[in-house]
């Protein structure tokens, strides 16, 4: 911001900041509340619900940071962002410098600021929690710094080492792949990213709706990687369009596999083959990536009026909220545990409720019923109660004998998890696969059982957050570079 053109509002905030310099004064500042679109409006469109922070709000929130001598927020971040560094730059009004600090360790700050579960990671380690106060809004501030850079039109490019003349291949273009590509490009490697779909971004494009993560935001992050020298190839399936032997023949010195977990799971109950029962992967891909329901696009999609979404994760929330925007009049979340056990972010659950989604917790579908034409018309639900904790620490749901109810539905979206894409593991000899279908890797380096082939993200974890996948990308890049530079 030009210091010679400070608005009266900015001047007022800055005067208040000058008066708020002690720790006691900093801790007395309430956590910022981000503006949101009204629920009755947002269900009619695909506009982003969260509206971001103003400069004044960001500076005031940054003022809350106590600049701890041992910042645990950093250790809570899977990519080890220098959180105090970028926040203090925001406090000083050095917004571009804040973006520079972010990009030292994160290839996708605008993405992470929107979809990462900060409440379980960096913000959960904030010292304010020990004071029984709300933590610093690290995610909001990360989004602000990245958005401010994007809207300024002056891209921040991380410094890259001199080209080494060494080619590296990446299979997939989701968060793990993009994080890896950014790290290797910074180190001077020539990175080629091969994506099976027609757009770059992986789950960021096909899995997350624009009302939560606009494509424009993802595209800007990808464009930055392109300007760093990363080369992107679409419509290319590693293991089918091109093989591992081809990559070796073309002189690629290493391969990072980040092909994700795009294989949907179903529950194996009667009626899952009825018309109108589909996976969340299929539903969201049709709408988000293939334009179903948008003017000028011919991709077909079922527009149910009474829609049930089975599951309690973020993907389930994305699915039910998408169904509302696709015209559904009644939408149910069916989850076999209580709301307290839901893995979805609290914010996503709140948004879904605000948008009219009804939560049927402690229920589990046991059968889908069809009409004479083979279309789903109803679901039978078994009431559940919570028993003893299972291996994950959550209390196991057990059926309440004899308590079964039937609810009319004309569309069911199943969101009970995904499995790793089996194509690459089956196409490349020498890769060991676990019983879960994930790739076996060294825990320290993420190298597979095939030399100079590394892997990360959902193909290893079987399903994870964007930021954990990005952490894998950074970790694998560091390990691969160490091997190449011996």
Question: Number of DSSP strands?
Answer: 15
CATH superfamily of the largest domain: FAD/NAD(P)-binding domain
What kind of oligomer do you see?
Answer: single chain
Q: CATH topology of the largest domain, what is it called? A: FAD/NAD(P)-binding domain
What is the topology, as strand order, of the major beta sheet? 3-2-1-4-15
The class by helix and strand makeup works out as alpha/beta
Major beta-sheet overview = 5 strands, parallel
Distance between the termini: 45 Å
The number of helical runs is: 19
Can you walk me through this structure?
It is built from 19 helices and 15 strands. The strands form 4 sheets. A 5-stranded parallel sheet has the order 3-2-1-4-15. 35% of the residues lie in helices and 17% in strands. The N terminus is likely disordered. It folds into 3 domains: 143 residues, Fumarate Reductase Iron-sulfur Protein, Chain B, domain 2 (Orthogonal Bundle), CATH 1.10.1060.10; 161 residues, FAD/NAD(P)-binding domain (3-Layer(bba) Sandwich), CATH 3.50.50; 150 residues, FAD/NAD(P)-binding domain (3-Layer(bba) Sandwich), CATH 3.50.50.60. The chain has 486 residues and is α/β, with parallel strands linked by helices. Helix 10 links the parallel strand 1 and strand 2. It is globular.
């Amino acid at each position: 911001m030009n210091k010679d053109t400070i608005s009266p509002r900015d001047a007022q905030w800055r005067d208040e900041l000058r008066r708020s310099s002690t720790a006691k004064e900093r801790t007395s500042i309430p956590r910022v509340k981000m503006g949101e679109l009204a629920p009755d409006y947002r269900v009619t469109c695909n506009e982003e619900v969260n509206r971001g922070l103003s400069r004044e709000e960001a500076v005031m929130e940054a003022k809350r940071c106590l600049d701890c001598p041992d910042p645990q927020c950093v250790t809570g971040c899977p990519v080890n962002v220098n959180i105090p560094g970028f926040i203090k730059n925001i406090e000083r009004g050095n917004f571009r410098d804040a973006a520079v600090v972010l990009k030292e360790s994160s290839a996708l700050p605008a993405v992470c600021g929107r979809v990462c579960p900060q409440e379980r990671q960096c913000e959960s380690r904030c010292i304010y929690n020990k004071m029984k106060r709300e933590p610093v809004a690290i995610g909001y501030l990360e989004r602000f710094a990245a958005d401010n850079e994007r809207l300024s039109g002056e891209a921040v490019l991380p410094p890259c080492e001199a080209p080494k003349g060494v080619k590296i291949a990446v299979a997939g273009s989701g968060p793990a792949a993009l994080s890896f590509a950014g790290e290797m490009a910074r180190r001077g490697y020539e990175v080629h990213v091969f994506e099976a779909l027609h757009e770059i971004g992986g789950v960021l494009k096909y899995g997350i709706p624009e009302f939560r993560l606009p494509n424009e935001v993802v595209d800007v992050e990808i464009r930055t990687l392109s300007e760093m020298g990363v080369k992107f190839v679409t419509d290319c399936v590693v293991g089918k369009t091109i093989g591992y032997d081809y990559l070796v023949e073309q002189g690629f010195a290493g391969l990072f596999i980040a092909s994700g977990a795009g294989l949907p799971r179903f529950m194996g109950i009667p009626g899952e083959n009825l018309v109108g029962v589909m996976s969340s992967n299929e539903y969201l891909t049709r709408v988000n990536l293939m334009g179903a329901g948008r003017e000028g696009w011919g991709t077909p999609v079922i527009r149910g009026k009474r829609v049930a979404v089975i599951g309690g994760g973020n993907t389930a929330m994305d699915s039910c909220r998408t169904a509302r925007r696709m015209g559904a009049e009644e939408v149910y979340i069916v989850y076999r545990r209580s709301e307290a056990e839901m893995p979805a972010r609290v914010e996503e659950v709140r948004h879904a409720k605000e948008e009219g989604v009804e939560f049927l917790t402690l229920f589990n579908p046991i059968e889908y019923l069809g009409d004479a034409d083979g279309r789903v018309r109803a679901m039978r639900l078994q009431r559940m109660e919570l028993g003893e904790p299972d291996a994950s620490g959550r209390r196991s749901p057990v059926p309440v004998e004899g308590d079964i109810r039937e609810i009319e539905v004309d569309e069911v979206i199943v969101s009970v998890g995904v499995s790793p894409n089996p194509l690459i593991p089956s196409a490349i000899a020498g890769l060991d696969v676990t019983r879960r279908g994930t790739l076996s890797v060294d825990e320290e380096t993420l190298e597979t059982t095939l030399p100079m082939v590394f892997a990360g993200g959902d193909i290893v974890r079987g399903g994870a957050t964007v930021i954990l996948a990005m952490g894998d990308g950074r970790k694998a890049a560091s390990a691969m570079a160490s091997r190449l530079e011996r």
